[in-house]
Target: 3-isopropylmalate dehydrogenase
Amino acid sequence: MASRKLLLLAGDGIGPEAMAEVKKLIAMMNAEMAAGFETEEGLVGGCAYDAHGKAISEEDMAKAMAADAVLFGAVGGPKWDGVPYEVRPEAGLLRLRKDMELFANLRPAICYPALASSSSLKPEVVEGLDILIVRELTGGVYFGEPKEIIDLGNGQKRGIDTQVYDTFEIERIAGVAFELARTRQNKVCSMEKRNVMKSGVLWNEVVTQTHKAKYPDVELSHMLADAGGMQLVRWPKQFDVIVTDNLFGDMLSDVAAMLTGSLGMLPSASLGAPDPKTGSRKALYEPVHGSAPDIAGQGIANPIAMIASFAMCLRYSFNMVAEADRLEKAIADVLDSGLRTGDIMSPGATQVNTQQMGDAIVEKFRALAA
Ligand SMILES: NC(=O)C1=CN([C@@H]2O[C@H](COP(=O)(O)OP(=O)(O)OC[C@H]3O[C@@H](n4cnc5c(N)ncnc54)[C@H](O)[C@@H]3O)[C@@H](O)[C@H]2O)C=CC1
Ligand SMILES: CC(C)CC(=O)C(=O)O
Ligand SMILES: [Mg+2]
Model:
């Protein structure tokens, strides 16, 4: 069987704690299911800065470019608050996204039945929720130039970020959203702020044209992104697929995370374009959450977002659909059995730590395979 090359970049804070639980799954799948994963590890974020003064080294970038998929934990933390902007921990992740051309970030927000009461919203608002946020990941204000702080010379400074989108960038992310909608409820809601942003006017225009030209069978609606945030907490089940830009996608997916009970539940896949010859594409899988400095080192983080990101890796990078389904079912079954990390704890449930949650999911995954 062909080998499957994985690069593991655990990063900072709770990143390594969550990644340790995925490593258990990889070891088990290699030993018991002949999965053939070949893993390498590298440094990204604050730990990379500490080791060599950069948020990711050229060697680790080369490993990422050569891997079939990258699994990423989280980066950042107060320890690196004072480091120069260019080498801050988050710059490592942004470089990976940009250099690997991972323009499509899929962020599914699914409310597992067992967690309907863990959300800060009423159970009937979130029960059965299954939405997908498709976030543009290599453009917009995260990367637009100029991006600088200039000294105005009068005791004042000016901070500048630039939101830029070209037609092709909007077209390709809209295409991803429409294609995925066809495999789901066939509905796309596009979110921008065309009332105040020129890039929003273009976004709206290009999504509308792409829909008309190629995907007229999909139901399309448009919403201003601020109203979209409000609708996400008012009645999230009205949405199927949401397509939006880099910044709005970042914010709206943190909002969506809380619908599912915790940021510790939300996985993501960041995908590049398929190679026209081989059909394979560059990909990075990471939880939506950050390094959670407030709980790092205590062994209490929820590893489910990281484990569910690995399930997305099985599905999208290795076409191991049965295994991905089984892993997602293992997560649901473990939650049904009443185990909870602290962030999703509810009365009557059994509180477990990171390792115990990881072990329970590995065990359930093994049992489902038998
Ligand atoms: N992809 C990445 O590596 C990201 C990195 N960050 C970085 O992480 C650092 C901390 O950022 P914050 O804004 O605090 O966001 P965060 O996502 O790290 O934490 C927000 C809150 O959610 C909780 N939380 C997050 N993940 C959890 C999990 N798996 N289990 C239980 N609780 C969890 C944390 O304890 C915290 O109270 C910053 O340096 C930020 O730049 C933030 C977002 C994404
Ligand atoms: C560069 C990241 C820290 C930005 C972020 O919050 C995210 O992608 O979710
Ligand atoms: Mg974020």
In short: The longest helix spans residues 15-33.
